[in-house]
Amino acid sequence: MEGTKSTDVSSKDGQCLSHSDVMLKVKKELSEIIQSDSLLCDLPAEITLDEINSQIALEYGQAMLVNVVRADDQVMGVVVTQSATVLDLKHAIKRHFLLKQTREGGKTHISWRYVWKRHWLYFKGQKLTEDNKKLKDYDIRNKDEVTFVKRLKEK
């Protein structure tokens, strides 16, 4: 039939594979490549394009790793560009956390507006209060630690 699309793909042995079978095969192959590569081996098997691009930007010095320390002493390694602002860091934390929750099968709907109302990001005793201020202006560099602290009520 001309004009119709076929979603089936033939394998090496001539069998037709469905789209889902092809996707599983591609994911398996990609996982094997990632695990065998020395630069990418610390990335998860279910990697996203954003994570690959972030890792490449880190290797070329176009991005930096900011370690965000939570109240329960868990450390999240978040990648942001060299010219990132506090708001960019907040968005990167959100992406990192949502991806982690999705992979672990946890709750994925979180009110980030509520989170930022109730918590501050701190670096060396100073609050990162201005969303449009660059991280470099706070003297945050590659592999520095930013602390995620609950806000106290102001009277």
**Strand line-up in the sheet with most strands:** 4-3-7-5-6
Secondary structure class reads alpha+beta
Radius of gyration using CA atoms only:
21 Å
Q: What amount of the residues lies in strands?
A: 15-25%
Structurally, the number of domains stands at: 2
- Terminal CA distance reads 74 Å
Task: Summarize the entry for a quick read.
This protein is of the alpha+beta class and 155 residues long. The chain contains four helices and seven strands, in the order E-E-H-H-E-E-H-H-E-E-E.
What does this structure look like?
By secondary structure, the protein is of the alpha+beta class. It has two domains: 17-36 and 44-60, no CATH class; 64-150, Phosphatidylinositol 3-kinase Catalytic Subunit, Chain A, domain 1 (Ubiquitin-like (UB roll)), CATH 3.10.20.90. It contains four helices and seven strands; from the N terminus they run ββααββααβββ. It has helices at residues 19-36, 49-59, 86-104, 112-118, and strands at residues 9-10, 16-17, 63-69, 75-81, 119-123, 126-127, 145-150. The strands form two sheets. A five-stranded mixed sheet has the order 4-3-7-5-6. It is elongated, with a radius of gyration of 21 Å. The N and C termini lie far apart (74 Å). The model is unreliable at 1-6 (pLDDT under 50).
Write the layout of secondary structure elements.
Layout: E1 9-10, E2 16-17, H1 19-36, H2 49-59, E3 63-69, E4 75-81, H3 86-104, H4 112-118, E5 119-123, E6 126-127, E7 145-150
Parallel strand pairs: 3-7
Antiparallel strand pairs: 1-2, 3-4, 5-6, 5-7
For this entry, give a set of tags:
five-stranded mixed beta sheet, 7 strands, Ubiquitin-like (UB roll), single chain, 2 domains, alpha+beta
